[in-house]
Write a structure and sequence with these properties.
Radius of gyration: 26 Å
Largest sheet: 9 strands, mixed
Distance between the termini: 95 Å
CATH topology of the largest domain: TIM Barrel
Helix content: 25-40%
CATH architecture of the largest domain: Alpha-Beta Barrel
Number of strands: 20
Bound molecules: pyridoxal-5'-phosphate
Number of domains: 2
Length: 452
């Protein structure tokens, strides 16, 4: 009898897909050397790397497309630019030029909107924390103040009493839909009767006038039916307020939440197959509004506070390769000069990363890391990229929403932002930060060498 060789357990080796398919064909990697017709290299020469680039034409076109999709279906529409999505003044002013109101969620944003030429009446004031000074200014000036909780309701009443006035307010609702996670931390719950109690409380106080309802369901909502479902609930509530209490509303604000043509990390299908069009969203929103029991001349204005779906595609980021390396498991790693400090949305989106120079070299799954000395600084996970030498650049898209307003002065300073105009000219709208921007607010005590 011969000895059997000892059992050797099999080794599992991870298959790296993407190099070649079963027909022996590798993936094609596209490249993109310009944004809005302007050469990326020329922009980097003018403003440095990394660099955010906004395309004015896309900003205006997306705004008009959403507005048109709505006015085609409902006669009274106003869009309020959601400041926190990107509150660079130049960007906000582009939207205001197009006719947008301002939707703000803090005193800082309220003041920004005022500086950008908005009257209080053109400001929608949301958020769970409204400071006394801004809230007073907003109530007295006629801003559209959306009440978030009972404490705020009582504060508004006190302000109204102190100033001997009866300001208009809206109440924010939250509600259950069949498909979306519930955002019940904002506003008053419609399903369990809390919203009805809020109205009762407001009417009993007699200090405030209820003129609107607001609901913001969530963000990046791919299921358009959720909008119809929510709108129907809000409309039923509005109808009851009118028939039972004689309250005639002038505004129904259905918030934001429309998805941009981006792709979540968890998303299987690419955005062009999964993100609904503005027409599809508008169809569902207005479908719900058709049940409004209001005479035609008294219909409330439909307000939308769309953020990411308007601006995301208008923004790109150019970043430069600073190093290449092999990871311990054999994968390629690449370090670039922009990380999650500037690209906060890389945490949940699979952004598109493409080289700015064409190449015929075969791509390979690549981990793209930012410049931070932090393990979590990953800009792209197993992105199919060709070899890229130090100094070569890539474009990250779409990144126009939330990145600038959520960017951090962490380890690195913030990059410059430029705007490309429809005529092909470009201009700086935020300069690259310098060290003084970081230290300006600091105070060095005298015993540490600071001034007296
Ligand atoms: C109250 C409110 N309105 C509007 C928006 C804009 O949302 P989005 O960017 O999803 O359109 C937000 C963002 O979360 C919000 O909190």
């Amino acid at each position: 009898m011969t000895d059997r060789p000892p059992y050797v357990p099999p080794t599992l080796v991870r298959h790296r897909s993407g190099l070649m398919n079963k027909m022996g064909v590798g993936p094609v990697v596209s490249s993109r050397s310009s944004v809005a017709g302007v050469n990326v290299e020329a922009l980097v020469e003018a403003y440095g790397s990394p660099l955010f680039i906004y395309d004015e034409q896309i900003i205006r076109a997306r705004y008009r497309a959403l507005h048109n999709a709505l006015v085609l279906r409902y006669p009274k529409v106003a869009l309020a630019w959601s400041y926190k999505t990107c509150y660079l003044d130049a960007i906000c002013r582009l939207y205001h030029q197009e006719g947008a109101l301002a939707e703000v969620v803090s005193g800082m944003e309220y003041r920004k909107a005022r500086r950008n030429g908005m009257t209080p009446g053109q400001i929608v004031y949301n958020g769970p924390h409204k400071d006394d000074q801004t809230l007073t200014e907003a109530l007295l000036g006629g801003a559209r103040v959306h009440l978030d909780h009972f404490d705020e309701l009582a504060r508004c009443e006190r302000i109204a009493e102190q100033h001997g006035c009866r300001p208009a307010v809206s109440i924010r609702l939250n509600l259950e839909t069949s498909t979306l996670p519930r955002w019940d931390r904002f506003g008053f719950n419609l399903d369990n009767g809390q919203a009805r109690d809020a109205v009762r409380r407001l009417l009993a106080g007699g200090r405030l006038r209820l003129t609107g309802l607001h609901v913001h369901l969530g963000t990046f909502i791919l299921d358009v039916r959720a909008f119809a479902e929510a709108t129907r609930k809000v409309v039923a509530f509005a109808n009851r307020l009118r028939s039972e209490r004689g309250i005639v509303l002038d505004t129904l604000d259905l918030g934001g939440g429309l998805a941009s043509r981006n792709r979540l990390r968890s998303q299987y299908l690419p955005s062009d197959q999964s993100v609904p069009s503005f027409a599809q969203y508008a169809e569902q929103l207005v479908d719900g509004l058709s049940a409004l029991d209001y005479p035609a001349n008294e219909l409330p204005t439909l307000v939308l506070e769309t953020g990411r779906a308007l601006i995301d595609e208008a923004g790109s980021l150019v970043t430069t390769v600073v190093a290449n390396k092999r990871l311990a498991d054999g994968r390629r790693g690449m370090v670039v000069d922009a990380g999650v400090n500037t690209l906060f949305t890389a945490y949940w989106y699979q952004h598109q990363l493409v080289p700015t120079q064409p190449t015929s070299e075969p791509p390979e799954p690549t981990m793209v890391y930012g410049p931070l000395c932090m393990n979590i600084d990953v800009v792209g996970n197993n992105v199919m990229l060709p070899p890229m030498a130090v100094g070569q650049r890539m474009l990250v898209t779409p990144v126009g929403a939330y990145n600038l307003s959520q960017s951090m002065q962490f380890i690195e300073l913030r990059p410059a932002v430029c705007l490309v105009r429809p005529d092909g000219t470009h201009t700086l709208i935020r300069r690259r930060e310098v060290l003084d921007d970081l230290t300006r607010a600091e105070v060095i005590p005298p015993w540490l060498g600071g001034g007296r």
